[in-house]
Amino acid sequence: MSDTRSKLRQQLLQARQAWSTSNAAVTAQDQLTQHLTDLLEQLEPTCLGLYWPIRGEFNPRPLALMLKGEMNLSLALPWAYKATAARDARMDYRRWDGQTPETQDECGIACPDSAPADPDVVLVPCVGYTASGHRLGYGGGYFDRYMAAHPHITAVGVAWDDARVDAADFQAQKHDQPLMLIVTPSGLASGD
User: Fold this and answer.
1) pTM of the model
2) CA-to-CA distance for 29 and 78, rounded, in angstroms?
């Protein structure tokens, strides 16, 4: 099963990276920003958990900076800890001022080394997703563990339209946490 997931992940990542430099990607970024703005205005978070975009992901930073001023909300970025002999892999959130972080978490992703934060809404990047609200990530399980440990948060998946996968190609496993909904450039893609 993990070999199937790995192959699917690689296919989706290759397609996304090639697509992310196209003119269509610029238009999709604007469309996704508008749909997320509308949704977040309805959800009214007090602390919004985002992610630092990598490998052709939607860039939530312009949206976050706009909403921070309009909605008076605080922002946070995830900090991932790799598994060691003394601890399991895990993730938490750190307060973020919107500037480019000067530090990286243990997975090499930009994040401020700042005070802990407790977001009530988190945006979760999706390599792939199903109509039932399950996501295919990078395979580390960081977001799944975080969502399982914080069931009170509203987890919103963020994906490009072409990232949708058929349920026959991606079977959810016990550890996979479903997202409340998934937003794409075309609008809401899931809410089952």
Assistant:
1) 0.92
2) 21
